[in-house]
Amino acid sequence: MDYEKTNLSSRAAAIHDIIQVGLMAAVIFVMTSIAHIPSFMGVVHLGDSMVLLGAVLLKKKKGAISAAIGMSLFDLLNGYTAWAPFTFVIKGLMGLIAGSIAHRKNYNGESFINNLFAFLIAGIFMIAAYYFSGVILARFIVLKAATLNEAFIIAMKDIPGNIAQAIAGIIISLPLSSTIKKALKYANIVL
């Protein structure tokens, strides 16, 4: 009998996790879809704010999965198919990095300063990762005639947009994550 209760409890927890990841992936997809501007080889958007929010609310594992799914789904459905595999990995790692730092030690995603640090590190990672992904795409997929040196130069054109995207994501997600975390704590809701 105890085994059945434990088994049902773990199934309910798994379903709960799937629902949370699915909802956050949808929120990330919608935010990216609502506010995006095409850039030289990619797109600048506000979806990173929800990636960072997901990392704080859902922690590293679920935050990473929801970020990878939501962002790569946007790429697949909006003509950025070549970027989708890169996005899946980069945004997943971005969520993992932000969630790992935000929830390290006893911070539990509740420290404004620690979350800022987490978001900055995740943003820097995203900018660098998309730069090197842009080099690969410029060299082997988008502009096959480009040399490797040219690809490194071409990929630089998207750096300013990625910096703006990271900054906007941090500006939106910091107060939002603090407010939501406080509201959840006040209501005794554990995600």
Strand-helix topology:
Layout: H1 2-34, E1 36-38, E2 43-45, H2 47-77, H3 84-102, H4 112-142, H5 148-155, H6 159-186
Antiparallel strand pairs: 1-2
Helix pairs in contact: 1-2, 2-3, 2-6, 3-4, 4-5, 4-6
| Rg measurement, Å | 18 Å
User: Can you tell me the CATH class?
Assistant: Mainly Alpha
As laid out across the biggest beta sheet, the strand order is: 1-2
Number of domains: 1
Assembly state:
single chain
**Which fold name is given in CATH as the topology?**
Arp2/3 complex 21 kDa subunit ARPC3
Share of helix, binned: over 70%
From the helix content, strand content and strand pairing, which structural class follows? Answer: mainly alpha
What is the molecular shape? globular
The termini sit apart by: 27 Å
Q: Largest sheet, if any?
A: 2 strands, antiparallel
Question: Which band does the percent of strand residues land in?
Answer: under 5%
Mean pLDDT: 93
Q: Which residues sit in consecutive blocks of at least 5 with pLDDT less than 50?
A: 1-5
Pfam families: ECF-ribofla_trS
InterPro entries: ECF_substrate-spec-like
GO cellular component, one term: membrane
Protein name: Thiamine transporter HmpT
